[in-house]
Amino acid sequence: MFEDWNVDNSTARRLALTLFDEDQLASDSKQRKFLIRMEFPFAATISPRYEVILAIQFIFESVMVYGAATSIALIAALILHVGSQIDLLCCKLTEISHNCDKEKLQKHIIDDIVGKHQRIIQFSKNIEKIFTYISLCQFVSNMLVICFISFILVVSSHMDQATVIIMKCFPYYIAVNCEAFILCYTGEYLTSKSEDITKSVYNFLWYELKPQNARVILLMILRSQGKLTLTAGKFLCLSLEAFANVRHLSL
């Protein structure tokens, strides 16, 4: 058992040295460098191969970075929009109490509230339908990167070049954690906002309304009990609990 552990430990150290060996980096300083360290079965540093490979790497990295940043920013913006619409819906409920003696105006406001609630639910479902698999790809990739970097940091802590390796890996480790946190926080924010609808409708003095209007509010209470969620692949709800579980697995 100890021999297997020594073999695995030596393999991990060789991996870390391969990725962050300063001697190898110094020897490569006189050669042309790529944005991503790669090995090719041909002379890749000869023009025009070098320029073509460098351009492909630059385009690939740009697409990946801007794609991930744009998708997360778009999800966050849409969820914030849903949250603002929920706040407006809760404010609409307060208008009914000021118009209890005006039945026509009261009925008009209730119809507006029910329609807005329906649009919020439908809009949230559309967000979930569009971004569920995008969120899955980002969440799984973040989890794998976090686990891999954590492994490198733990292994490199017993090496002579531990400081250099940690300084190179730690900023990227923080960036990936922030990306996963933003993704999970948007799901947590949507769920908490959906609970605000239930609380606002339930605390409203619906029993003082006309019977036909009170029945509509009761149906709205029942419908608002279903929480709005943002999932990753329809099997994992994005929340702070999910982020905490990922952090726990990476340690």
TrEMBL record:
Q: Which GO terms describe its biological process?
A: signal transduction
Q: Which UniProt keywords apply?
A: Cell membrane, Membrane, Olfaction, Receptor, Sensory transduction, Transducer, Transmembrane, Transmembrane helix
Segments crossing the lipid bilayer: 66-83, 130-155
Q: How does it sit in the membrane?
A: Multi-pass membrane protein
Question: Keyword Transmembrane helix, does the record have it?
Answer: yes
Name a GO CC annotation attached to this entry: plasma membrane
Per its UniProt record, what InterPro entries does this chain match?
7tm6_olfct_rcpt
Name one matching Pfam family. 7tm_6
Q: What is its main location?
A: membrane
Tell me where in or outside the cell this protein is found: Cell membrane
Question: Could you give a GO molecular-function term held by this entry?
Answer: odorant binding
Output the PANTHER family linked to this UniProt entry.
ODORANT RECEPTOR (PTHR21137), ODORANT RECEPTOR 19A-RELATED (PTHR21137:SF35)
Per its record, how is this protein called by name?
Odorant receptor 4
